[in-house]
Design goal:
Layout lengths: L8 H36 L4 E6 L10 E6 L4 E6 L9 E3 L5 E3 L13 E5 L2 E5 L4 E2 L5 E2 L2 E2 L12 E3 L28 E2 L9 E17 L1 E3 L2 E13 L6 E2 L11 E2 L7 E23 L3 E10 L11 E2 L12 E3 L3 E2 L7 E2 L15 E2 L9 E17 L1 E3 L2 E13 L6 E2 L11 E2 L8 E22 L3 E9 L2
Antiparallel strand pairs: 1-2, 2-3, 4-5, 6-7, 8-9, 10-19, 11-13, 12-19, 13-18, 13-19, 14-15, 15-16, 15-17, 15-18, 20-31, 21-25, 22-23, 24-31, 25-30, 25-31, 26-27, 27-28, 27-29, 27-30
GO molecular function: calcium ion binding; signaling receptor activity
InterPro entries: EGF, EGF-like_Ca-bd_dom, EGF-type_Asp/Asn_hydroxyl_site, EGF_Ca-bd_CS, FA58C, Galactose-bd-like_sf, Neuropilin_MCO_CoagFactor
Protein name: EGF-like repeat and discoidin I-like domain-containing protein 3
């Protein structure tokens, strides 16, 4: 049978507009009908419907009882205004009838998202890298190869090129975007016929893209020209990435020189814990620096797009904005004082962090952001005191608007104080995101467990709004 002829776009657009007009008219008629019922009931109480109308949405009643505001009493009354329960997203009609309301009629999905109408709701299928209820948020955070949030132990490879006389080690831990130095990238061994490099994200993540870069060895440009991407949840079973509807593996175009960057986006995104880059065609050698792009899988709309460093490392947060309960001095010498304003991520020097005078859970480090901000996360780091590794392995957080009255961040499931996992060595980053985030001017870091001495370097994450 011949396929039916497709309607012209103009006809489809007119039909969509007609459906929207009919939906709007249905909503308007239903609102009038329910409004009349409210008014009649209020008149029995010798009162009028207040200007605020109804205290719950008129088209989402869960039973035949409706709450009504009557201005003469200033409180909510309960009235039975029709006998047929409206248990989904339907508009009330006279004589107890209902009419389905299409929640997709107003086109709530943005940025090319496809809307699906549900009972009393809708859902959007968002194109990568957009996420969120209405596809308004971009899942495009840099995930930590360049900045070091992804640590060396998370990166592995099929082989390593040893360089001149075996003295150069082009290991996977060097595969960081814009890494500098004579040996500054990962490169597979010449005899490796199936090279790969892999990153363990340590939990399921949403990956929306990758940025790649080559390197130069002895003045010769080396880079990956073409590659594939595979992913896994358990590091045992891997799936090679394919575009939607395609039967063949997706082949990504890589770099054309040793220093320029090339960005490839994943649409659909990859959800996995392990991400493996598989070079297919290389120039001279399979040599790679890179960064991954994406976001936390369980982060809600309240944190995505609001994870900027607030100024500890950059010194946007000044020294005077940092205070502490006490300060430690190594050997009691003033020159070796571990001041609160030393608690800056990646700070260098003999004394390069805040350390408390006493190992006690009553100690704290406080940040005054000067204005309320949305706080969505924290990165912590330990330090060394003359070779002694020191760090905070668990901590709580408190926040305040005035610096006097404090609230401690709670575990959303247990409803108890949230204890965050801290560091396990002196230099590795540990990142914790807050869901939900909180708004505050003052933030206090509260050590709970530690190794050797309470010692921390840190960065707060968030945004102004």
């Amino acid at each position: 049978m011949a396929e039916p002829a497709k309607k012209p776009k103009r006809v489809l657009l007119e039909e969509a507009k007609k459906r929207k007009r009919e939906s709007d008219q249905t909503r308007a008629r239903a609102r009038i009908n329910i409004g009349r019922a409210y008014t009649q009931w209020c008149e029995l109480k010798e009162a009028k419907v207040s200007k605020h109308g109804f205290c719950i949405r008129w088209f989402r009643q869960l039973s035949h009882q409706i709450h009504v505001y009557c201005s003469a009493h200033g409180e909510a009354y309960t009235a039975t205004v029709f006998t047929t329960p409206v248990t989904d997203n339907r508009a009330y009609q006279p004589h107890g009838g209902t009419t389905d309301v299409n929640d997709c009629a107003n086109q709530p999905c943005m940025n090319g998202g496809l809307c699906r109408d549900l009972d009393a709701d809708y859902t959007c299928q968002c194109p990568s890298p957009y996420v969120g209820k209405q596809c308004l948020l971009r899942c495009t955070s840099l995930l930590g190869m360049e900045e070091g949030e992804i640590v060396e132990s998370q990166i592995s490879a099929s082989s390593v090129h040893s360089g001149i006389l075996g003295l150069q080690h082009w290991g996977p831990e060097l595969a960081r975007l814009n890494n500098r130095g004579i040996v500054n990238a990962w490169s597979s061994a010449p005899q490796d016929k199936n090279p790969w490099i892999e990153i363990d994200m340590q939990k399921k993540m949403r990956l929306t893209g990758i940025i790649t870069q080559g390197a130069s060895r002895m003045g010769t440009a080396e880079f990956v020209k073409v590659f594939k991407v595979a992913s896994s949840f358990d590091s045992k079973t891997y799936t090679v990435y394919r575009a939607d509807g395609q039967r063949k593996d997706k082949v990504f175009v890589g770099n054309t020189d040793n220093d320029g960057t090339k960005t490839n986006m994943f649409d659909p995104p990859i959800v996995a814990q392990y991400i493996r880059i598989i070079p297919v065609v290389c120039r001279k050698a399979c040599t790679l620096r890179m960064e991954l792009v994406g976001c936390e899988l369980n982060v809600q709309s309240s944190t995505i797009g609001c994870t900027d460093p607030l100024g500890m490392k950059s010194r946007l947060i000044s020294d005077t904005q940092l205070t502490a309960s006490s300060t430690f001095r190594t050997w009691g010498i003033d020159a070796f004082t571990w001041y609160p304003h030393y608690a800056r991520l990646d700070k260098q020097g003999k004394t390069n962090a805040w350390a408390a005078a006493n190992n006690s859970r009553s100690e704290w480090l406080q940040l005054d952001l000067e204005n309320p901000k949305r706080i969505t996360g924290i990165i912590t780091q330990g330090a060394k005191d003359f070779g002694v590794v020191q760090f905070v392995s668990a901590f709580k957080l408190a926040y305040s608007d005035d610096g006097q009255t404090w609230s401690i961040v709670k575990d959303q499931i247990r409803r108890t104080d949230k204890i965050f996992q801290g560091n396990s060595d002196n230099n590795t980053y540990k990142k914790n995101l807050f869901e939900p985030p909180f708004f505050a001017r003052f933030v206090r870091f509260l050590p709970w467990e530690w190794h050797e001495r309470i010692t921390v370097r840190m960065e707060l994450l968030g945004c102004d709004d």
